Amino acid sequence: MRFPVRLTSRRAGAAIVGAIALLALAAPLVAPHAVDARFDGFLNAPPTVPHVRDAAGGWHAPFVYPWILVSQLEQRYEQDRASPVALRWLTGGRLVQSSGDARAPLLWLGADSFGRDVFSRLVFGARVSLGLAFLSALGAVVIGAALGGVAGYAGGALDDALMRATDFVMVLPAMYVALALRSVLPLVLAPQLVFVLLAAIFTIVGAPFVARGVRGIVRTERRLEYAVAAQAIGATALRSLVRHLLPATRGFLAVEITTLVPAFIIAEATLSYVGLGFPDPVASWGTMLHDASSVRAFADFPWLLSPAAAIFLVVLGLNLLFQQAGVPVYNESDESVRNLRANSHPV
Fold first, then answer.
1. Alpha-carbon gap, residue 241 to 220, rounded angstroms
2. Which of 52, 76, 230, 250 could form a disulfide with 235 if both were Cys (CB 3.0 to 4.6 A apart)?
3. Which sequence spans correspond to the domains of the chain?
């Protein structure tokens, strides 16, 4: 018998999610440019590469070379190695900027088809997309767990009524439900109102899936000895549900979060694609992917697909972080573990 410490993957997941969340929170500092800043001479420009050695082999503080447009039709650029531009650190409320933004803007992930800095839009868009996805997932989990817990514990007519209501939402494709709910609202809305409305819509769409799973777990757990014993010693229905039964669903709820968050990110992207999401000046991963769909991003401008890579990292981090949710983790330093290991036989 062995009790391995399974924390490496969870720490890796926490590091990935934490790093992306930190970039989102520090967006005004780490982004070299404003989210709507445009550089007309750098449409679809490639990423700017920092250097510390010049063309003659001399060493310098970090600098960049300006991009020169050599083909308007192909939107092909080359570096002007005769005119290095120094980087400025911690000036103007930014971590790093180019000292010559007009002719050599600092574009860590290149520019989009409007000449906007992709990296700046990516970190500012993380605030919108991740905030919307996590808030919606949290709302769906809270409401779904409450409905499913009550239905599974009460049973009878209340259970039937709540489950029929969830069936009504689940029988339809979730994306079509979101599209239908959003389409009945005014098309032109303030970005803050769009955020609140989309969060409410996603919560309504996601809660039934959580409720069905929680209801099944609670119905099973309430028949077990520990739940029956809690009722026998006088625990109220609310205490039994909150203190004993709902904690048994934490593994399922963790898995639901890992599926709902990317689903809501994609849902926001879809709504933005059809013109029902955030307006164009607002940076979100959905609007950025919509812009990338209008060009041959994968073949010619792969940096425009950075929001897709960010979504992948978020999903990977969440899966690593929650993959062992609900499974006890033992520490090799615990005295009880050491004693049990000493008196056990290898399997």
1. 12
2. 230
3. 124-284
Residue 112: how many other CB atoms lie within 10 Å: 25
**Band of pLDDT at residue 323, cut at 50, 70 and 90:** low
Predicted confidence (pLDDT) per residue in 261-320, tens digit: 888 888 887 787 777 778 777 888 888 887 887 766 566 788 888 998 998 898 888 888
Q: What is the pTM of this model?
A: 0.79
Sign of CA dihedral 145, 146, 150, 153: positive
CATH number, span 124-284: 1.10.3720.10
**pLDDT tens digits, 190-221:** 888 889 888 998 998 899 999 999 998 888 88
Ranges of beta strands (E only) in the chain are 51-53, 59-64, 67-71, 76-79, 85-91, 94-98
| Percent of the chain clearing pLDDT 90 (strictly above) | 21
Q: Do residues 95 and 30 make contact, with C-beta atoms less than 8 angstroms apart?
A: yes
Residue 105, helix vs strand vs coil: coil
Residue 238 in tokens: 């609310």
The CA distance from 185 to 199, in Å, is: 14
Tokens in use for 112? 């989009």
For 132-163, b/e burial (b = at least 16 CB within 10 A) is bbbbbbebbbebbbbbbbbbbbeeeeebeebb
Per the CB < 8 A criterion, the answer to whether 166 and 212 are in contact is yes
Q: How many whole angstroms separate alpha carbon 38 and alpha carbon 43?
A: 9
Angstrom CA distances, 72 to 45, 48, 66, 106, stand at 11, 19, 16, 21
Q: What angle do CA 85, 90, 94 make, to 5 degrees?
A: 90
- For 3, 184, 248, 315, 320, the CA distances from 6, given in Å and listed in that order, are 9, 48, 20, 20, 11
In the chain, what is the straight-line distance between the N-terminal and C-terminal CA atoms, in Å? 6
* 13, 316 Cβ separation under 8 angstroms: yes
